[in-house]
Amino acid sequence: MSESTTNDPTGEPRTRAQGEPEGQKWLSGIVSLIGLWIAITPAFYTAATSMTWNNVLIGGAIFLLAGYNYYRITNGYRTSTGVMSLVALLALWTLVAPFAFAGQVATEGLAVASQALVWNNVAGGLIMAVLAAYIAYAAGTAVRTGTAAGTK
Length: 152
Hints:
InterPro entries: SPW. This is SPW repeat-containing integral membrane domain-containing protein. It comes from Natronorubrum sulfidifaciens JCM 14089. Keywords: Membrane, Transmembrane, Transmembrane helix. By secondary structure, this protein is mainly alpha-helical. The chain has one domain. It has a two-stranded antiparallel sheet. A hairpin with a 5-residue loop joins strand 1 and strand 2.
C-alpha cells in the first residue's frame, strides 16, 4: 500500500486516506477508553487514597495521550510513536501499581484496594500495554514511500 504525504502549514507531514492503517486508529480509541475506565474505577471500588490518586492521574493521562493519538490519525497525521510508547509505559505502571503500593499501605494497616480494583488494574494495564506497544511498533516499522528528505 503506498502512502503519499503533504505538509500542512506547520511543516508536519500529513498522511492521506491510504496512509495509516484504520486499525491503529481504533486501537488507540480502545486504549483511550480503557484509560478512562482506570481513572473512574476508584469511584466504584474501595481503595486507599494513594491508589485512588494513582488511578485518576495515570488513567487520565492514558486517556488523554491515547485520545490525542486517535485525534492525530483521524485528522490525517501519522501515529505518534513517542506518545504511544509513553502510554505503554504508563500502562505497565498501572499493571504493577497495586503491588507497589501494597507495601506502603500495609504498614498503615490498610488494604491498598479491593481485590476487584487490583485485578481491574492488572487486566486493564496488561491490555493497554500490549495494544499501545503494538501501535508504537507498527507505526515505527511502517514502510514510508516517497522521495527521500532533501531530494526532489
